[in-house]
Amino acid sequence: MGILEQRCAGAFWLHLNRLLVFEVRISDTEAVLYGVAFVVLTRLILFNLLFAETTLSATVGIILAIVSYSWECVESALVLPTTLQYWSRLCEIEKRLESGGLTK
User: Fold this and answer.
1) d(C-alpha 45, C-alpha 57), whole Å
2) Which terminus, N or C, of the chain has the lesser number of Cβ atoms within 10 Å?
3) How far is residue 35's CA from residue 39's CA, in Å, rounded to a whole number?
4) Taking the alpha carbons of 3, 6, 8, 11 in that order, is the dihedral positive or negative?
5) SS in 3 state form for the chain?
6) How far is CA 7 from the centre of its chain?
């Protein structure tokens, strides 16, 4: 028997509070992971700049191109988890539609 079928207000609010705690944990984990990813990717840009300056004797235009392309890479990497999440949701919806799970 489900929480809503029990018609018990205490059980319902306990369930919602547990969901809230779970959502906060997920949010905290995402924040830490995005922070770590951003730090790693920023270090990648700094490494690219250092490598270009010490090894390539790069001009100002080359440095600007390296920063531009590196930042484009960082932006793409930060969007990737969201894209994968949307893709996962679409796959779940597709499975439900194929199995007829939404018609109930």
Assistant:
1) 17
2) C
3) 6
4) negative
5) CCHHHHCCHHHHHHHHHHHHHHHHHHHHHHHHHHHHHHHHHHHHHHHHHHHHHHHCCCCHHHHHHHHHHHHHHHHHHHHHHHHHHHHHHHHHHHHHHHHCCCCC
6) 36
